[in-house]
Design a protein that fits this description.
With about 60 residues, the protein is mainly β. The chain has a domain of about 40 residues. About 10% of the residues lie in helices and about 25% in strands. β2, α1 and β3 form a beta-alpha-beta unit. The mean pLDDT is about 95.
């Protein structure tokens, strides 16, 4: 499953994951403080934001 993400900046990568009921947009304020010195990767987790949705929930899926 291909997840929706936002990639910005250059340098060592930092991955930002939102909490329950969230989306990558919730992380904009936090990521903007790091984008000048790092590559920031904000991710919409499965069944959140613009990432694919599925009724199947398991570790295998």
């Amino acid at each position: 499953m291909k997840l929706n993400y936002k990639l910005q900046g250059d340098g060592q990568p930092i991955v930002f994951l939102h909490g329950v009921f969230g989306s990558l947009d919730n992380l904009n304020m936090l990521a903007k403080d790091f984008v000048q010195h790092y590559q920031t990767i904000q991710v919409d987790l499965r069944n959140h934001g613009n990432s694919p949705w599925s009724d199947q929930i398991s570790y295998q899926a």
